[in-house]
Specification:
Blueprint lengths: L4 H12 L4 E7 L5 H14 L3 E6 L10 H7 L3 H4 L4 H10 L10 H16 L4 E6 L6 H11 L7 E8 L13 E4 L4 H11 L5 H11 L3 H12 L2 H7 L11 H12 L3 H12 L23 H5 L3 E3 L6 E3 L2 H9 L3 H14 L4 H11 L5 H16 L3 H13 L4 H17 L3 H8 L11 H15 L2 H17 L7 H17 L2 H14 L5 H11 L1 H4 L3 H9 L7 H13 L7 H13 L3 H18 L2 H17 L3 H17 L3 H18 L2 H18 L2 H11 L11 H4 L1 H10 L3 H13 L7 H14 L3 H12 L8 H18 L2 H18 L2 H13 L16 H11 L4 H8 L3 H15 L7 H12 L2
Parallel strand pairs: 1-4, 1-5, 2-3, 3-4
Antiparallel strand pairs: 6-7
Helix pairs in contact: 1-2, 5-6, 6-7, 9-10, 12-15, 13-15, 13-16, 16-17, 17-18, 18-19, 19-20, 20-21, 20-22, 21-22, 22-23, 22-24, 23-24, 23-25, 24-25, 24-26, 26-28, 26-29, 28-29, 29-31, 30-31, 31-32, 31-33, 32-33, 33-34, 33-35, 34-35, 35-36, 36-38, 38-39, 38-40, 39-40, 40-41, 40-42, 41-42, 42-43, ...
Protein name: AAA family ATPase
Keywords: ATP-binding, Nucleotide-binding
InterPro entries: AAA_16, P-loop_NTPase, Sig_transdc_resp-reg_C-effctor, Tscrpt_reg_LuxR_C, WH-like_DNA-bd_sf
């Protein structure tokens, strides 16, 4: 037995202790009392004790001495050896003679003598199961005897149900409470008897059983066979966990014995999710239905009182499930209708109950469900929204409304990553033409994109659907049109094909104001930031200002736009808060993109260990949901991270896998990242020729290939590789092209890398110093430590050649320190080699800055760049107070007293250590 160590020790002591004694085992139905009783009997048999059994039977609870007969019948041979007075008492009890029934004391003394006589040959153990059903006369005698067993060789064990009144309640016998199992013991029992249970079913069983062993053993196979009923209940009110007949009987008889009004109260409470068990200590019951005038149910052990609210709660989850399952369908619908009236001011709660109360089509209820779905979407409830819209479609009065609502459900399912469900919804209403509708194009487009990476056919299909809607002469931004436009933009981003993008721009221009503001942001950010990125970051910021009104996928899409213009850091805290909710509520695809964005920002700001963990989490999620596109997308970012960290073998392995999958499908977005992995890995290895060849595979020097999103992102890579391979003209041409294209105005990162590239390629030392200063002093330079360190390294090398070794040490030290903190060993060694050439001590490393911890140094760098404590906290996921505490410790270490002195102090610290 699991989790019964204390009880087993107590029972062992009870059986083996000398002398007679009595013990009552009291607990709920199914808690394991009978199992413990069997254990007691086995122990007694091992101790050579005679075991005599009896059991209370509810049907015999009114028959005098019926229970006592069970105990005494095996001892009839001993009665003839008693004196005449005691024999006459038993003759009356057994009906062998007439006479007045003996008193409790008279019969009790006779029973004690009989038991002593029988036990003189062999110790006795009397076990009584279901003692609550023992007739009153027998109960009184057993209580009398149980209190007087001391000094005998007789023991008595009585098992009682704690929720049923009994004559033993006042018998003053010692008790051993049999409680429910602990969570740990429940898990052990469940895993032993039902191994390899589905995690969701396992959790459901544990929650419903609440430590009741009978439920733990009986529920799993029954729930497995009735999963659909449960899934519907998660949205349309509590339906009760499917219970086998044996578990329904635990509380069923008591529920059936209640009056109709009380049963109705219990049913409304159960359907509205009233808590079960005072252990929940729930304060949310104030928003649930309040069961009134239900004292009768409490008296029967079905309800308890919540100690925090004073409201009725169900005594156990099994009570709640039994209440629902023993009600008729009409009773449940009536209860839901009543609850809809109770919650008339709560949009989603009212819709929940309306959905479950209706049988025939009802447009008013369908509209209420649709409104509830819109509300659920804004709080991240994708699964609920899909279910509500599907139910709204069922209740729609016209085929057109049915198709429209099913289309919306399929759209949310597809966008949320529920690909199988999206396909089922698309094919569920062929009679009304959904299979050929624009809604179906949206759903099938998401399936084709996410599951297969099919950008070619899905692009053609969605493009045609948008053209068809345009040609119908729409006069407003139709919901389906907006969905098609956003999907077309997503497919175009993954295809990264210049010709396809130009056709999309032409099509969207023809739609004019029918394309909403958000979609225009996606159009400009996702396509080509070199051509269309100016001003996008301001537009993204304005859109995020209305965060509360944005649907989750719009938040994610705007996050992607922020990534393309390198302003993602300011929105990462929101993404981090939202991602767990998206996973839990079923919006898997949204969560995958959010994890991509979080990982990208972690890479950008130098949190590479955290980025690795985020990427692995995303890879597990994408693989589990069969999202081939997102799985390869995640591998691409993991490959890029590996290349940055110098793990070039792993980087190239991931590069090859991504490229082999993406290139035949024409997924240019991923093939470009694959080329970027090759460029970064080659740079880490110091193979500049290979790096140059990879870089020009993305874009040739002096230009930025249209709609190649990696072209501006690999600006530094191409310039450095060209310089190191003697292609100084190509390097300079590319740096100037970045300036002429206005990249510094597009994003802070591109401003940093453009000035860095211009500094690296300038032939005039004054021009080089000017661009280097613009790069290093840029307000956002600290947000991109890897790029800044590369620029510092290049500048230090130039300074060593033009200004002498001592002048180079400061820049080289800062670069070496950053590379070490990032975990880029190849780059760090390169910087240290330059430092040694510049005459710095061989031991130069970030250990020289040990006066500051890594976190203190990072906070100091960010503060020196001009960020406030709040902004630093958001960047590093710390509270402003924690940031302030770190700076309080940093100032005395640097021998400064103000924030304004930080930059100079950090520079002096590095200079002093290397002179």
């Amino acid at each position: 037995m699991f989790g019964r160590g204390d009880e087993l020790r107590a029972l062992s002591e009870f059986v083996t202790a000398p002398g007679g004694r009595a013990l009552v085992l009291r607990g709920d139905t199914g808690v394991g009392k009978s199992a413990l009783l069997e254990h007691v009997a086995e122990l007694a048999a091992q101790e050579k004790q005679r075991v005599i059994r009896a059991a209370g039977v509810e049907a015999e609870s009114e028959l005098p001495f019926a229970g006592l007969h069970q105990f005494l019948y095996p001892l009839l041979p001993y009665i003839d050896r008693l004196d005449e007075v005691h024999r006459q008492v038993f003759d009356v009890v057994f009906g062998r003679s007439t006479g007045a029934p003996p008193s409790v004391m008279t019969l009790g003394i006779a029973v004690l003598d009989l038991l002593s006589l029988a036990a003189s040959q062999k110790p006795l153990l009397l076990v009584l199961d279901d003692g609550q059903w023992l007739d009153g006369s027998s109960t009184e005698v057993c209580g009398f005897v149980g209190r007087r067993l001391t000094g005998s060789s007789v023991k008595l064990v009585v098992v009682l149900r704690s929720d049923v009144p009994s004559g033993f309640d006042t018998a003053a016998l010692p008790e051993l409470p049999v409680t429910t199992l602990s969570e740990e013991a429940s898990e052990q029992l469940l895993d032993a008897r039902h191994p390899e249970l589905d995690p969701k079913i396992r959790r459901l069983v544990l929650d419903e059983a609440r430590g009741n062993p009978l439920a733990l053993l009986e529920l799993p196979p029954y729930i497995r066979a009735n999963r659909t009923a449960r899934s519907a209940g998660e949205v349309f009110g509590y339906t009760g966990v499917p219970l086998p007949q044996r578990l329904q009987q635990v509380y069923g008889a008591r529920i059936e014995s209640l009056g109709p009004a009380v049963r109705a109260q219990l049913l409304r409470g159960a359907l509205d999710g009233v808590g079960a068990g005072t252990a929940s200590g729930t304060t949310t019951n104030t928003t649930r239905y309040r069961m009134l005038e239900a004292d009768e149910a409490a008296d029967r052990g079905l309800l308890d009182i919540d100690p925090l609210t004073g409201d009725f709660v169900f005594r156990h989850p099994l009570v709640r499930s039994t209440v629902v399952q023993t009600a008729t369908p009409n009773e449940r619908r009536a209860a839901h209708a009543a609850l809809a009236r109770v919650h008339r001011d709560n949009l989603e709660r009212r819709a929940t109950h309306l959905a479950a109360s209706a049988v025939d089509p009802d447009e008013e209820i369908a509209a209420a469900l649709e409104a509830a779905a819109d509300s659920a979407i804004r709080r991240g409830g994708a699964l609920a929204a899909i279910a509500w819209l599907t139910r709204a479609a069922e209740l729609s009065e016209s085929p057109a409304e049915r198709s429209r609502r099913l289309g919306s459900a399929a759209y949310i399912a597809g966008h949320s990553g529920q690909l199988d469900q999206a396909q089922r919804l698309v094919s569920s209403d062929t009679a009304s033409g959904l299979a050929d509708s624009p809604d179906s194009v949206v759903a099938t487009g998401y399936v084709a994109l996410f599951e297969d990476g099919d950008v070619r056919s899905s692009h053609s299909q969605v493009f045609t659907a948008v053209e068809t809607l345009r040609d119908r002469g729409l006069d407003h931004a139709d919901e389906v049109l907006v969905r098609l436009v956003d999907l077309l933009l997503a497919i175009s981003q993954y295809a990264s094909d210049a010709g396809a993008w130009e056709r999309v721009h032409k099509l969207l221009d023809s739609l004019g104001d029918l394309v909403p503001t958000h979609s225009r942001v996606y159009q400009d950010a996702w396509g080509d930031v070199v051509l269309r990125g100016a001003g996008v970051h301001e537009r993204v910021e304005r859109a995020f200002a209305a965060l509360a009104d944005l649907e989750p996928w719009h938040v994610t899409r705007l996050g992607v736009a922020a990534y393309h213009v390198d302003t993602l850091s300011q929105y990462r805290p929101h993404l981090r808060r939202a991602v767990d909710r998206e996973v839990e509520t079923g919006a898997a695809a949204n969560a995958m993109t959010m994890l991509h964005l979080i990982m990208l920002d972690q890479i950008a700001v130098g949190e590479w260990d955290e980025a690795e963990r985020t990427g692995q989490r995303c890879l597990e999620l994408t693989t589990a949901h069969r999202h081939a596109l997102f799985a390869q997308h995640t591998r691409a970012y993991l490959g890029l991270l590996a290349a940055l960290r110098g793990d070039t073998d792993r980087a190239r392995e991931l590069q090859a896998a991504v490229d082999a999958w993406a290139r035949p499908r024409g997924v240019g977005f991923l093939t470009q990242i694959a080329d970027a992995i090759g460029t970064t890995a080659a740079l880490s290895d110091g193979d500049y020729e290979a790096a140059y060849l990879h870089a020009i595979g993305i874009t040739p020097p002096g230009t930025f290939t249209p709609y190649a999103h990696q072209a501006p992102r690999t600006l530094l890579d191409l310039v450095e590789a060209a310089l190191h391979t003697g292609r100084t003209e190509q390097a300079r041409t590319h740096a100037l092209a970045a300036q002429e294209a206005g990249l510094p105005d597009v994003s802070p990162r591109l401003a940093l890398t453009t000035h860095g590239a211009l500094a690296m390629t300038a032939t005039d030392p004054a021009e080089a110093d000017r661009h280097y200063h613009l790069a290093e002093s840029h307000p956002a330079s600290a947000r991109f430590p890897y790029e800044l360190a590369r620029i510092r390294l290049a500048h230090g090398i130039r300074q060593r050649h033009t200004q002498g070794r001592k002048a180079a040490r400061h820049s080289l030290t800062l670069a070496a320190d950053t590379f070490e903190r990032l975990g880029a060993p190849a780059w760090a060694e390169r910087a240290h080699a330059e430092l040694r050439t510049a005459g710095a001590p061989a031991a130069t490393s970030s250990a020289h800055l040990a006066a500051l911890t890594w976190q203190e140094r990072r906070i100091a760098d960010l503060a020196a760049s001009g960020l406030t404590n709040k902004e630093i906290g958001e960047r590093m996921h710390l509270s402003p107070r924690t940031v302030s505490s770190h700076l309080y410790r940093v100032f005395p270490k640097l021998r400064i007293t103000s924030r304004a002195a930080l930059r100079d102090a950090l520079g002096r610290l590095s200079d002093d250590q290397h002179t």
